[in-house]
Amino acid sequence: MNQRKATPILPPKEFAKRVIKYAVFATILLAFSLGIGVLGYHYIGTLNWIDSIYNASMILTGMGPVDEMKTDAAKLFASSYAIFSGVIFLSTVAIFFAPFAHRLMHLLRIEDIDN
User: Fold this and answer.
1) Could you tell me which residues come within 8 angstroms of residue 24 by beta carbon, excluding any fewer than 6 positions away?
2) In angstroms, rounded to a whole number, what is the distance separating the alpha carbons of residues 84 and 81?
3) Structural domains in the chain plus CATH codes
4) Percent with pLDDT over 70 in the chain
5) Using an 8 Å Cβ cutoff, are 67 and 56 in contact?
6) What is the end-to-end Cα distance of the chain in Å, rounded?
7) Structure confidence at residue 60 (pLDDT)
8) pTM of the model
9) Which segments within 1-115 are labelled E, that is strand?
10) Which candidate among 32, 33, 79, 107 keeps its CA 20 to 30 Å from the CA of 88?
């Protein structure tokens, strides 16, 4: 994806394909991360499935925990998952917006500094 000033900007149809590809990857990453949280809250935190989904979703989006964890193992999982979720959520946002940022830099003719 290293494009130079002389490289023409992608046509809208190709750009839409790129956006969809990045959005699908970001969605898969979020779903995988949510799955980790749901399984952890269900099996380690001993929450039922709905509460596990609710807790994992709230943590993954940065809203905070809902249910109190009773055991030390559950507290350690919740702590680890919260740190993991923060990184994943920010990474997912960056992945989703990368094609738009790239297109904007291309339109504004911004190049790498080391060129």
Assistant:
1) none
2) 5
3) 13-107 (1.10.287)
4) 90
5) no
6) 15
7) 93
8) 0.80
9) none
10) 107
